[in-house]
Design goal:
Elements lengths: L23 H15 L8 E10 L3 H14 L5 E2 L8 H14 L10 E2 L7 E3 L13 H8 L10 E7 L4 E9 L5 H16 L16 H12 L4 H14 L8 H4 L12 E8 L1 H14 L3 H17 L4 E7 L16 E7 L7 H14 L8 H12 L12 E7 L5 E4 L2 E6 L10 E7 L4 E8 L4 H20 L5 H9 L1
Parallel strand pairs: 4-5, 8-10, 10-13
Antiparallel strand pairs: 1-6, 1-12, 2-3, 5-6, 7-14, 8-9, 11-12, 13-14
């Protein structure tokens, strides 16, 4: 198979009567966690929680039927994974060698297993007082943090709690091996369709996808196995990374005297509300410039980091959903991946020109023929983080942008649904900047390890918002003027 035509080659179903392949993301995670635990490192299982709040009378039986339909449609939710800690030392050496050479784990050494029939119980959680926030509630936190056994499916749990007289919380918790954040938007849409159809079509079930996540994983491995495929991919990564001079912005650049020396036991989350006027200005500016709102936000993050480091290009870690292919746009799974984006800062150019270059930088990784972007991103990570055993704990600054259509949704005459503010409590020491845009408001947050100054984090968030206000008010204003106005 030619890697430069692989994006247009179809993803086909593979036999389930053999060891099932792991995707590149899944294999990298299992290898890294196994080696880290062998060295006595922290067990930082990434749990991805998702919550929905309901005002009104919720049909809990209908929610249970939706959950069972979800499991029937998506095999990845019924998938169990090998425990690499239990394989022999020789097998572990083979796994490390295979991953270092090819970027994946051959199924013949360690593959996933699929259960034909799994039921997912809907746990009735204790009531949450109406005057208590869902995020940070001890019962909710305990439900999120409870560990999964990766060798036993499902790697998901579901619970429902009453939060007052006519208010409910539906809380789903997943292991990151089976899902990413973009998949949550797919589930929200499917839930809304099935629940709203309940009065007229109570037995409605959405159609099963033509291919599943395991077929996507097999397709990835076929691309890697192509002649000279990895050499081609590594060559692209080398040329891309060499342009940046090999330097990402790290937490030590922002906290030069307060960076922690060892992985932190807890995560500190600092939030700043983003009001409707700011979000409207971002969307208007992006639309008038024919850009995405992500490019505007990331451009202002770049300016804030430049002002503090005075280094250009500013290279920051960011993420992509990797769902350009038609076959996988409705699949659940771990497709998202991260890669570095580098942006030169020219003080004399207009801010709108900077935003346009940010947009081009975001798409640059995908502009290499038809090499799958997911493989490019993973190869980039191996180049930047050559030690896969510790690469997940590096102290890089990252930025994530999410557009969540979470304005209250009417599911019936007496029931309204909205997203609940629940967050992962994964331990890490990286500094994550993220912005979540809702229909009417938003949140800019900084998540960092205990030991970093919370004051610096708050100042950084405030500065980013000021830069957004200055840059979107007059996008043709020069970058130097935007920085000066925001500082005042």
């Amino acid at each position: 198979m030619n890697p430069f035509t692989s994006e247009v080659d179809p993803i086909e179903r593979v036999s389930r009567d053999q060891p099932l392949p792991l995707s590149v993301n899944q294999g990298a995670y299992l290898i890294a966690e196994s080696v880290r635990r062998a060295k006595g490192g922290l067990d930082s299982e990434p749990h991805l929680p998702w919550g929905l709040e309901f005002d009104g009378e919720l049909d809990v039986d209908a929610v249970q039927r939706w959950l069972q339909g979800l499991f029937a449609r998506h095999e990845v939710l019924r998938t169990a994974f090998p425990d690499l800690d239990r394989v022999s030392g020789r097998k572990q050496a083979e796994l490390l060698e295979a991953f270092a050479r090819f970027g994946y784990i051959p199924p013949s050494i360690a593959g996933a297993s699929l259960l034909d029939s799994v039921t997912i119980p809907l746990t009735r959680l204790d009531d949450i007082p109406a005057d208590r926030s869902v995020d940070g509630d001890p019962l909710v936190s305990e439900f999120i943090q409870k560990p999964f056994d990766r060798a036993v499916a499902p790697l998901m749990r579901a619970g429902v709690a009453r939060c007052g007289v006519r208010r409910h919380l539906l809380l789903l918790v997943f292991h990151h091996l089976v899902i990413d954040a973009a998949s949550l938007l797919i589930m929200r849409r499917d839930f809304e369709r099935e629940y709203c159809a309940r009065p007229t079509a109570p037995e409605l079930r959405l159609q099963e996808p033509s291919v599943q996540y395991v077929d996507y994983a097999a397709w990835q491995q076929q691309v890697i196995d192509g002649p000279d495929a990895m050499a081609q991919i590594e060559g692209v990564c080398a040329r891309y990374w060499d342009r940046f001079g090999g330097r990402l912005v790290t937490a030590r650049d922002l906290w030069p005297h307060g960076a922690v020396e060892a992985p932190s036991e807890t995560v500190v989350r600092i939030e700043r509300a983003v009001d409707r006027a700011v979000l409207t200005a971002v969307r208007h500016a992006a639309r008038s410039l024919r850009l995405t709102s992500c490019a505007v936000w990331l451009g202002c993050v770049v300016l804030a980091l430049y002002r503090r480091t005075r280094r250009t290009p500013v290279v920051i870690w960011t993420y992509s959903a990797n769902r350009a292919r038609l076959e996988i746009e409705c699949l659940l799974g771990w497709f998202a991946n991260g890669w570095p984006v580098g942006v030169e800062v020219d003080l004399e150019e207009p801010a709108n020109v900077l935003f346009a270059r940010v947009q081009r930088a975001i798409w640059a990784v995908a502009d290499h023929g038809e090499i799958p972007t997911s493989l490019l991103m993973r190869a980039m990570q191996r180049r930047i983080r050559p030690n896969t055993a510790t690469g997940w704990a590096d102290d890089y600054i990252s930025f994530d942008h999410n557009l969540v259509m979470s304005a209250p949704t009417k599911l019936g005459p007496s029931l309204t649904m909205r997203d609940a503010p629940v967050h992962s409590t994964r331990r890490q020491r990286s500094v994550d900047l993220s912005v979540v845009e809702h229909e009417v408001d938003g949140t800019l947050s900084c998540r960092h390890g205990r030991g970093h100054s919370a004051t610096v984090a708050r100042e950084l968030l405030d500065e980013i918002v000021r830069l957004v206000q200055m840059a979107t008010d007059q996008p043709e204003r020069r970058v130097r003027a935007v920085l000066d106005c925001a500082q005042k």
